[in-house]
Every structure is written in structure tokens, then in C-alpha cells.
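Usage example:
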Amino acid sequence: MPVCGIFLVGFMGAGKTSVGQELAKILGWAFVDLDQRIEAEERLTVAEIFQRHGERHFRDCEHWALRRMISELGQDRPGVVALGGGAFVQPENAELLAAEDRPTVFLDTPVEQLWQRCMALGEPERPLRTDPAGFRALYEKRHADYMRATIRVDTVNKDVPQIAREILATLNLEPRGARKETTK
Ligand code: S3P
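Running the assembly step on the lines above writes:
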């Protein structure tokens, strides 16, 4: 069955949103950031959900938003979805994506770079971006789970368009408008 959805996974600051937007632009597909979807549905920011209702509630919202997202995508409505950093490490989400045979892409970035990016000006408030040691410990705890994604892309020394092209090539997807050469 042709691919109708790509799910980007990886730690906070890995570039899931920028790469997802680029991929969607190249493919002519919709782009959805799952955290933004949750914020719109809950009418609260992710940070507010954590503060008011706790992480467990956030994970429930995340799981149901992911389920709805998966069921919305189809051949006539293909899309690229950026998941929040903790989504794929929840077993129920990884199992759901595997059961639905949805390709997942792990953007693998060294933890030092992730920390720098998350500390940059203008970045959203991230409840689980604590101190450097806590951030590294969480990254190390999760890394093996991210490695279970369908494909892994090393992002070191690559810009967003390069990463997007690499994903397309690995998943054997063509940019919008590209036609396979045919020989008569
Ligand atoms: C989280 C990452 C965040 C957001 C929430 C929890 C995590 O998304 O979903 O703060 O558990 O790593 P980003 O990866 O987009 O920062």
C-alpha cells in the first residue's frame, strides 16, 4: 500500500517540526504538529496542560490525538506528522503506529546540540527541559526506544532540506510533480 503518512520522532529540539514542514512542502502533503493539535483541542498550551493536569493527562491527550490523526490520513489526505518528544516512547503509541504500518522516522541528534537548541531564544516552554543533567538522563533513557523507528536519520552537519531529501530517498517517495521515467 502506498505511504500516506510519515511520523517524525525524536527528542526535544531534534527539528521534527522544521523537517516535517519541509517534507510536507516537497510532497505537497499536509503538515500537522501533534502538540499544536493538542493545544488547539485542549485550548491550553502544553506547559499549561502539564501544570494544571499533570503529565499523565497530557499523555492521554497525546494518545487520542495520535489515534485521530492516524484515522484522518489516507491516500486522498496524506500528511506528515511531527510527534512530541515523548510520544513515541509511550508503548501504546509505538504499538499503534506499528500496527497501522505507519513509517516512523527518528531524527537522531547529539544531546549537546539538542540542549543548545532548546535553550535558544524564542523556543517554546518545555516542561521536561529541566537542567542539563536531567535532560541528558531523559535522552539516554529514551534513545533505545527511538531506535525502534522504521528509519533513522543522522542529522549532524545536515541542513533541513538535506535531511528531508534523505528521508524521501530512504522511503522511496517522490516530490510532488515528479514523474517516474517510463520506457516504451
Ligand atoms: C515532550 C516534548 C515536547 C512536548 C512535551 C513533552 C517530551 O515536544 O510534547 O513538552 O516528553 O519530550 P517537542 O519534542 O516538540 O519539544
